[in-house]
Amino acid sequence: MSSKPSSAKKSKSPTDEVVEAAVPADSAPPKKEAKGKVLSLIEEKKPRSRGPARGGNALPPLGAKKVEEPAPQPAAPAKPTLDERKAAALNLFEDDDKPKVRRRPVDENAQQNALPPISLLNDPTPPKPIVPIVHAPPAEVPVPEFEVSDSGEKIIHLKPPIVVKDLADKMGLKPFKIISELIAFKVFASADKAIDIEIAEKICEKHGFKLERDKREKGGGVHKVEEVIVEPVAQVVEEVEEDKLELRAPIITFMGHVDHGKTSLLDALRKTQVTAGEAGGITQHIGAYCIWHNGKPITFIDTPGHAAFSAMRARGANVTDIVVLVIAADDGIMPQTKEALSHAKAAKVQLMVALNKCDLPTANVLRVKSQLQDIGLAPVDWGGEIEVMEVSAKSGLGLDNLLETMSLQAEVLELKADPKASPRATVIESSMVAGKGPVATVIIGQGTLKVGQPFICGPLWGKVKAIINDRGESIKEVLPGMPCEVIGFSDMPHVGDEVVVMNNERDVKKLSEERLEEIRQKKLNVPRRSTLEHLFASIEDSNKKALKVVLKCDVQGSVEAVAKCLTDIKSDKCNLDILHQEVGAINESDVLLASASDAIIIGFNVKVENKALVVSKRETVQIKLYSIIYELIDQVKEAMAGLLDPITREKVIGHARVKQVFKVNKGFVGGSVVTDGVMNRKQRARVLRGGQAVYDGGFETLRRFTDEVNEVRNGMECGIKLSGFSDYEENDVIECYELEKIAQTL
Q1: Is the backbone peptide bond immediately before 161 cis, with ω within 30 degrees of 0?
Q2: pTM metric for this prediction
Q3: For 336-377, how does the pLDDT look when each residue is reduced to its tens digit (9 = 90+)?
Q4: What is the distance between the alpha carbons of residues 266 and 286, in angstroms, rounded to a whole number?
């Protein structure tokens, strides 16, 4: 059999060679020649086989016909094996039938680098130098750190807390050994965890060591040292160098009894009209103002004169340098005048007296001076030390003399301050202003207050956002002794607190958080011990009537004054509970609180928001608005008295004596004679027998002969039948009385 050639052009099959050798081309018949050409064309079109020819072992090509061999054939080859037949059959598949895969050209160098030759003789790259293997040094064996005592004990010094890793290093052991030994003590800890000192001592004893604890210094050790933030200490003027001190504006406070003309006198000095805005002409706020006299500033503080504002007057005396005691020449010294004098003496400030209303025909200056002499305030013209000036706010009498005297007093006191020191100011009034938030009126004590400075004020913090002077102008800084309004508080400051400027805002916030937490802890840790007296008092209080109030005022000082007046209302029959007191207008939350607590809302110099008004009508909450403190206190007392149940009293209006008992269809009737007073059918009656009451009830019938009447007067006879009573006896006395209700008082 003939095998398939690998190439039709370059090689010929053995069959063709035999045919060409046996039959010459010239003598061959034309049919056989055409047939051979057809076969050769078929063979040329066939592609190359996949593998090389295997002699006579390959299978014949498809479609080829067997050619007879006339010439003698050489010895037949060996019969192909099964594997060779399979291989030959695989070669029948043509390369053109398989899909062509595009492959990127492979770099020979890269191929050589990826697969290096087996033999180093054919490798063009030089051999790499042999790097010797360097072994890691052996791990250091921990060396124990201990001291040997006189008795030969190994002592280890460690400061608490005892960490496992530190203990292992001291004993020269691996931490995992200590951890495995701790499991025996039922302690599961990692290398960076601390263990109890008793357990650590037992571990040390097991390994022949003795553990001694070193006391840790305060603030030292592995823990982070907490930074203690403290507000700056107030500067003492006497300790400051004279070169740093400058003259400051004197702070002068007007004090005195109500309606003695303090605010009118201040208006005349400032040439303004402050009293026109006060309700009833009564000053109910602390006002701070500044005027200029001879090119020098003077700060004035106007305090209320009513007894309710004694705390506000006390704050005014604490921040002032000179107190001007205003006394009306036609009225003389009054209770609030003496109280203001006691505040001024307690503050140890310079005192002056201004006798106002000296232009009135009823003014008696000599009488007022004699009263001053009696209380220890001797005038200068009487040989004393107190400056007493006669002035008039309306006519302007003596105002120049008053200003000149105050300026001289300030020069004598030599009031100085360091404008470059850490600023400090005192809050004399605070309020909640719409669009501005919490606003406080302050007076600078030392330093220069500037916009943008962070400060601490009691438990609150803040940052100066804006500074407004007494004329409503926005300014950038305020010098010592000058008043101003400060905007930028985190919440409503308490009157009397001190504004202290600090270095940065972070310290201010942290100090404020500490103070608020301290206040909270004090409230939570108040001990309550139950005693028998406390139990009885609580039972008694629970049986009392209570008037619950939600108080809203315009400024913080008014809140404190009104709340103090309300709490001073003492009554054994009715309690007054102030559920909430705050500055600002009456809002919706106040109405909801009052509705839930069955309380009334009291507003002092404030307005009611529209939403709150709608909610109050829906919830039927009563809102009372006041502008004068007298009316507020009086009406609250009346409301407390109105809660009390009226007292019921018996009033005897007549007696009748039973003369004869009559039997009727529905029982018995006592035929009686009215001995005194009158028998009224609408009132109540009791039966007295031997001086003891045997029955008490109402009238069923009261007859005069056969007629039913409402009353029977003295000396007349009548028939009396009481409801549910028929056991009449002769000479019983029927007493008629009425129940009258009397309103209780506090």
Answers
A1: yes
A2: 0.53
A3: 888 888 888 877 888 899 999 888 888 888 888 888 888 888
A4: 13
